[in-house]
Design brief:
Layout: E1 2-5, E2 20-23, E3 26-29, H1 47-64, E4 72-79, H2 85-92, E5 103-108, E6 118-125
Parallel strand pairs: 4-5
Antiparallel strand pairs: 1-2, 2-3, 3-6, 4-6
Helix pairs in contact: 1-2
Amino acid sequence: MKKIITTTKAPAPIGPYNQAVLSGNTLYTSGQIAINPATGELVLDTIEAETKQVMENMKEVLATAEMTFENVVKTSIFISDMHNFSKINSVYAQYFDEATAPARETVEVANLPKFVNVEISMIAIK
């Protein structure tokens, strides 16, 4: 059985999907981009600010499922320019303990929704 996870503290979906789905003890999140949920505006000032907004959005989705970044076992990072990898990684690293960080892939893509620079999705287990 699946449970839909929804919070107003993260951006509403912009298509036919949900913020996250909990199946048993496993949470599957949709990708988050840097939309400020309070304003609906994209945060694109710097790649660091954009990545921080993505991670804060994800933090709220996890919290709604009664989880934290400690529960995350896998992340997928999609970026529009691999030259931004180190800047994105430095912000991302602030949310995880390196010793227990999740498995991850980072992939450069041609375009992302709303032509943002980074999108991140996660799988977490309770």
